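User: Design a sequence. Structure:
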């Protein structure tokens, strides 16, 4: 088998694996609305989960700054706080966690448009 044939087979295999992964991920249920969490580590407040490589985190940060101001939320970064990400099962950023004393904790993945409805201006 020539070098070109080996490379062609490798490319075809990589494309096939990529398509399979894409199909599997599409079948996963979308987490568009908030999911309730049981946690005792973070007190009442709004928490933004980010990472340095996140392309959408700046947009969510700006929306939160506009809506509730810099003192209205705390930012948790994957690079500095990976243990809280693992503990709460945060596997994608941006994500916004709203913790209330009475209603518990709700995690909103992606842009927190639904979460923003309940935040005070």
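Assistant: Done.
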């Amino acid at each position: 088998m020539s070098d070109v044939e080996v490379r062609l087979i490798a490319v075809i295999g990589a494309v096939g694996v990529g398509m399979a992964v894409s199909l599997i991920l599409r079948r996963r249920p979308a987490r568009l609305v908030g999911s309730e969490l049981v946690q005792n580590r973070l007190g009442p407040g709004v928490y933004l989960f980010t990472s340095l490589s996140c392309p959408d985190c700046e947009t969510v940060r700006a929306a939160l700054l506009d809506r509730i101001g810099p003192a209205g939320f705390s930012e948790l970064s994957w690079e500095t706080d990976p243990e809280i990400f693992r503990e709460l099962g945060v596997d994608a950023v941006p994500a916004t966690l709203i913790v209330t004393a009475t209603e518990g904790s709700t995690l909103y993945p992606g842009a927190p448009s639904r979460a923003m409805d309940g935040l005070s201006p």
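Confidence is low (pLDDT under 50) at residues 25-32. The radius of gyration is 19 Å.
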